[in-house]
Amino acid sequence: MYREVTLLLLVGLVAWAYQAIQPPPPKICGSPDGPPITASRIKLRDGRHLAYKEHGVSKDMAKHKLIFVNGFSSCRHDEPFVTQLSPKVVEELGIYSVSFDKPGYGESDPHPNRTMKSLALDIEELADQLGLGSKFYLVGYSMGGHAVWSCLKYIPHRLAGATLMAPVVNYWWPGLPANLSKQAYSLMLPQDQWALRVAHHMPFLVYWWNTQKLFPASAVIHRRPENFSPQDLQILQKIAHRQHHKAVATQQGVFESLHRDMRIGFGKWEFDPLDLDNPFPNNEGSVHLWMGDEDRLVPVILQRYIAERLPWIKYIEVAGAGHLFAYADGMSEAIVRALLSGHNK
């Protein structure tokens, strides 16, 4: 009898644990229990939909066409570049921009099998269906930088130029020196260190870890003020009206948006960005990496190493800037003009 009771308790515990780590199904946009479809969307080859939003001049009038990739917990409404420019500058540059919801975010269908490569191919298909031409510019902000690295790997021939804005780094890239990764990793808040350990080593626990109440979960998800520099805190007040965008970003569920980003971004990559070759060997375009030296979310020491390792990247470090400096006055124009200059200087 004792053994039978023990066995039943063990089976019950295993069943409970299994249920606890299983995320609920996403609430697909347009489904009976999902949010309504309000965005413009394209239908991809595999049947998924990708939601997007256009900014700047019309495609027909544009001299330059740009795709913007959002960061963590952001959606198509969060485009801090062309939307920050004055109408006069937009007209002068003749710039068109399109931002989109990554799979599982906003009104884009989830992609449970998403990989670094699949996102690059989604971007290529978005460009083709919108008629952006054989080449386009690409900008990735924060975790959107992962998509830029992926496009530099898989579709470099489609890029006219690319910009990485405070790109999040995977601490397990093979090309990063172990001592440097360890030093940078130690700069994060302890709960963020644990959140990334789970994402990398035990991705099947990401949902449970970030929804349980026993231990502190990701401070990034909960927007803890310790993760923001003095400049960031000022900018947060300036862009407070954008805070409701997070609810839009995660309206289909946090697992296929935030948690999927974490699993892919901090998991084992299919390639090492530090092994990439210059996509513009004839100086027909350029890759820029902008970084604030007071960024508390992405350690600047890693970006400095990346810039040294990949000398074909034009590295610009902004003094006194945090993670949100793209929203600072004048920054969007400086970033866009540098990208459109067309060559390294």
UniProtKB/TrEMBL annotation:
InterPro entries for this protein: AB_hydrolase_1, AB_hydrolase_fold
Chain ranges of the AB hydrolase-1 domain: 66-327
Signal peptide start-end: 1-20
Keywords associated with the record: Signal
Domain of life of the native organism: Eukaryota
Name under which the protein is recorded: AB hydrolase-1 domain-containing protein
Organism: Hibiscus sabdariffa (roselle)
